[in-house]
């Protein structure tokens, strides 16, 4: 039975996808140090067939094509793919769920920047991705380490937490979402159970400029990522207080050339056989 990722499709076709499309340029600049590390690990060669999974607005797909790849990007978000198509006609951007995607030709390389942590059944999804690779094909993706290692997101999250209603049930840290792959052992198990070999998971850290000042940083943090998701649940005085707390927390990190906060990712690579 095909995997059902409808909840994520609804999420990425609504406010989240539209916001990512509007902020594409800003987000690509923010994430650049992490993309570059992922692309270095991917080391795409001229003429290789490449699939960019959860390609979103297409930044890494376009970069892979610029390095000589023959690239297709697959995503479930129509607004993000519309933005991607407006940026490049060299890459083919396809609307499909990567967990069930069945192209007519295999790939030499599967790549993803933050697009593979949203599957309901990750092992089943990665089994499908592996089946799309040539026998000597490789996969390289970038995913987030835990929030504690990512102050660029968690500083705001911690500041607004006291203003949120208490969760009725404890949150599942492995539920589809940005931090679902924070535990490297869990990622290794998923990839091994889905048939991948030569699994390597390397830590990479960078300092990200989240804004030139608190206004810019807050504008971004309240629109994308986990903080945006919870801010949307607040209104009235609680929202105002949460915003003030987030502003104070970010202001504490103001430096002479903007607000810089640390980010930590896993750069994961594996082979099909
Ligand atoms: C955090 S965004 C990253 C987008 C892009 N890779 C980037 O770095 O700018 C996650 C992306 O994964 C996509 N996505 C989530 N679940 C997916 C699925 N099952 N199949 C394909 N794309 C999916 C979302 O629509 C979204 O574009």
Walk me through what this model shows.
This protein is an alpha/beta fold and 273 residues long. It has a single domain (6-271), classed as Rossmann fold (3-Layer(aba) Sandwich), CATH 3.40.50.150. The chain is 41% helix and 24% strand. The chain is built from 11 helices and 8 strands. It has helices at 6-13, 15-22, 24-42, 59-66, 78-87, 122-131, 151-160, 184-193, 214-221, 226-231, 236-251, and strands at residues 49-53, 70-75, 92-95, 107-113, 133-144, 197-211, 254-255, 258-271. Strands 1, 2, 3, 4, 5, 6, 7 and 8 form an 8-stranded mixed sheet that branches. Strand 7 and strand 8 form a beta hairpin. The longest helix is centred in the first third of the chain and has 19 residues, at 24-42. The chain is globular and about 55 Å long. The mean pLDDT is 94. Bound molecules: S-adenosylmethionine (SAM).
Indicate the CATH architecture: 3-Layer(aba) Sandwich
**Based on the structure, what is the oligomeric state of the protein chains?**
single chain
Unique bound compounds: S-adenosylmethionine
Radius of gyration: 18 Å
CATH superfamily: Vaccinia Virus protein VP39
What's the CATH topology name?
Answer: Rossmann fold
Biggest sheet: strands, sense, closure?
A: 8 strands, mixed
Helix content: 40-55%
Please count the helical segments. 11
Briefly note the structural class of the backbone: alpha/beta
Shape field: globular
Order of helices and strands: HHHEHEHEEHEHHEHHHEE
Number of domains: 1
The end-to-end span amounts to 25 Å
CATH class: Alpha Beta
How much is the average pLDDT?
94
The count of DSSP E runs of length 2 or more, i.e. the number of strands, is 8
Beta-strand content bin: 15-25%
Poorly predicted regions = none
């Amino acid at each position: 039975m095909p995997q059902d990722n409808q909840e994520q499709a609804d999420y990425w076709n609504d406010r989240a996808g539209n916001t990512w499309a509007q902020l594409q340029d800003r987000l690509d600049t923010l994430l650049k140090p992490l993309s570059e590390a992922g692309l270095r690990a991917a080391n795409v060669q001229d003429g290789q067939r490449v699939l960019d999974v959860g390609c979103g607005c297409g930044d890494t797909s376009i970069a892979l094509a610029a390095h000589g790849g023959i690239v297709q990007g697959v995503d479930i978000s129509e607004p993000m793919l519309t933005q991607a198509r407006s940026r490049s006609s060299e890459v083919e951007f396809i609307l499909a769920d990567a967990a069930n995607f069945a192209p007519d030709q295999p790939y030499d390389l599967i790549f993803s920047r933050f697009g593979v942590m949203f599957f309901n059944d990750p092992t089943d999804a990665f089994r499908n991705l592996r089946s799309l690779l040539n026998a000597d094909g490789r996969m390289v993706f970038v995913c987030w380490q835990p929030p504690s290692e990512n102050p660029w997101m968690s500083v705001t999250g911690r500041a607004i937490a006291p203003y949120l209603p208490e969760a009725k049930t404890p949150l599942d840290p492995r539920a589809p979402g940005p931090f679902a792959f924070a535990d490297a052992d869990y990622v290794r198990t998923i990839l091994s159970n889905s048939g991948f070999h030569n699994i390597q998971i390397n830590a990479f850290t960078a300092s990200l400029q989240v804004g030139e000042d608190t206004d810019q940083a807050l504008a971004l943090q309240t629109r994308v990522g986990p903080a945006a998701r919870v801010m949307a649940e607040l209104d009235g005085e609680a929202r105002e207080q949460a915003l003030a707390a987030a502003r104070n927390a970010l202001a504490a990190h103001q430096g002479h050339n903007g607000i810089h906060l640390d980010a930590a990712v896993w750069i994961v690579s594996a082979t099909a056989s």
